[in-house]
Every structure is written in C-alpha cells, then in structure tokens.
Write a structure and sequence with these properties.
Helix content is 42%, strand content 16%. By secondary structure, it is of the alpha/beta class.
Length: 288
C-alpha cells in the first residue's frame, strides 16, 4: 500500500510518516512549498500514484484565525475542497482531518457523528466549510474529526506547561471549564492508518483519545508526573478572555471508529505517558 500525506511535514503528518515506516507502508510527503493546497491548478497532477490520500494540512491557530480569516478560510475551506476535487479527479480515496470545534459544546455528553454542528469560532466555521467542500466534491471522502492534538514536533499544551516548570514557576493557572479528550498525534496516526487499511464506506468518523478531562485536569496530570507539588489554580474561560470562543464540552464519541477498526483508541492518560517518555523537556524538568 502507498499513501500520500498532504501536509506531511506538520505535527500529525510527521507522525503519520513514521507510522507508515513502522508498518512497512510506502508514503509520499506533500507539503509547502512544492504543493500548495490553496491553488487548485495542477493539484491533481501533483498527487502521486497511491492507494489513498490523507489531508493533514490545516490552519490551526484558533485565536489568530479570528483576525486572519482570509488565510484561515483559504487553507481550511478552499484548500480542503481543492484536495477533495483533485482526489475525485484521480479516483483516490481521501481521509480529511477535521475538528471537534464544529460543535458548540452545549450537548453535555459526547458528540456522535450525526449531531448538529454549530461552531462558535472562525476556526471551527472554516473547518466546517471544509467538510462541506469535501462532501460537495463528490469523491470517496472520509471526514475524520479529532481534537486537542499534541505531538513531539509542534507547539502544544504539554510543552507550554513544561516550559513554565523549567523556568521555576511554582503556581500555574489553567482553565477548568473546557472539557475535551487530549489526543497524542502518534496514537491518532495509528488510528488513521487502521482506517485507511480497512477502507470502509465513505463516512464521518470521530477519532480521539478515550476518556475526557478539563485542561486543569490535564495540567494536574502533567505536573503529577514531572514535578509534584506545584500549585495549579483553576481559571474560567471568561477570565482568560480568549479572542476565540471555545466549546465547554466537545468530547467526541468514538464508538464508530472502534466498530470499524475492531479496537478503541488509547486513553488520554496513556497518550500523556507515551508523550512524556519521548519529550526531552520532561526529563529536564524532572531532573531540575
């Protein structure tokens, strides 16, 4: 099997490339500057001979999206549609990454794939428009919604906490009224390859860590593992005054993923432990 990874140099794309290597799956990495998904012309020709395309490319800076709307939309909406159209032209299955932020967080229990969507911020709106563009392209498209990603090759919440601890911070203040399922990109990469390997009928499927926690809970789990005793104060979303609104509860129900692949995703605590075992900064903080 051979897979083309669009956005293959990013945090998730890099882990997908490594997961392919571990499984003996050939992959082609497509990314800037050679491949620009915001330009439809020539995109279909840029896709190599392969069995499936995974589109990891995306604008992910949620707060910046409120002021960089044009760029965000060109990547997340128009770019997604361009990739889908190119895949349809080449008759290639597409696995397109989307987000829990297409939901407004008011349901109060895990979201299933068929739940009504109502994004609260522009990032979520752009990703929803991307989903619609992928479906409108009419090809063999799978929309994979995930959430709260962290990995070894990108900025993330865990590294932000570790950097503060390394600098000697003795008190942290973390939002406690947003609940999700933090997902390690290496675990997500394996889940995506499981889906590609099984090739079900095109659908929307949620792929995220099992379990759920607030960002305060997540920060406490990090601190407990690397520097116990640091005080973590609870803050509300309203107090922190983010430019972009966030859903209060955006946990994704992953039962369909488990039924398609025959296994559940790992728990978020397992993802955290796996990440910390590989993160050099964690060893520095423990030894500091």
């Amino acid at each position: 099997m051979r897979i083309a990874l669009v956005g293959g140099k990013g945090m998730l794309g890099s882990d997908l490339a490594e997961a392919c290597a571990r499984r003996g799956v050939a992959c082609a990495i497509l990314d800037l500057p050679e491949v620009d998904i915001t330009r439809a012309a020539g995109l279909a020709d840029a896709l190599p001979v392969c069995d499936a395309v995974v589109n990891c490319a995306g604008y992910t800076r949620v707060d910046d999206a409120e002021r960089e709307r044009d760029l965000c939309r060109r990547i997340n909406a128009e770019g997604a549609g361009n990739v889908a159209a190119a895949c349809r032209q080449r008759n290639l299955p597409l696995f397109h990454l989307s987000t829990d932020y297409v939901f407004d967080g008011t349901k109060g229990r895990p979201y299933v794939e068929s739940d009504p969507v109502a994004p609260l911020n522009y990032y979520g709106a752009s990703k929803l428009e991307g989903e619609e563009a992928v479906r409108a392209a009419g090809g063999q498209a799978f929309i994979v919604r995930t959430q709260s990603l962290y990995g070894l090759r990108g900025r993330n919440f865990i590294r932000a906490i570790l950097n503060q601890l390394k600098q000697g911070t003795t008190t942290l203040r973390v939002v406690s009224d947003q609940v999700s399922s933090p997902t390690y990109t290496r675990h997500l990469a394996d889940g995506l390859l499981d889906l590609v390997d099984r090739r079900p009928q095109p659908c929307i499927v949620h792929v995220a860590a099992m379990g759920s926690c607030s960002w305060w809970d997540f920060a406490k789990a990090i601190v407990d593992r690397v520097r116990p005793g640091v005080e973590i104060q609870k803050a509300s979303t309203a107090e922190l005054n983010y430019p972009a609104l966030r859903p209060a509860y955006s946990v994704l129900d992953t039962a369909i993923f488990a039924s398609l692949t025959g296994r559940p995703m790992p728990h978020w605590r397992d993802g955290l432990d796996a990440y910390l075992a590989e993160e050099p900064l964690a060893a520095e903080v423990r030894g500091g």
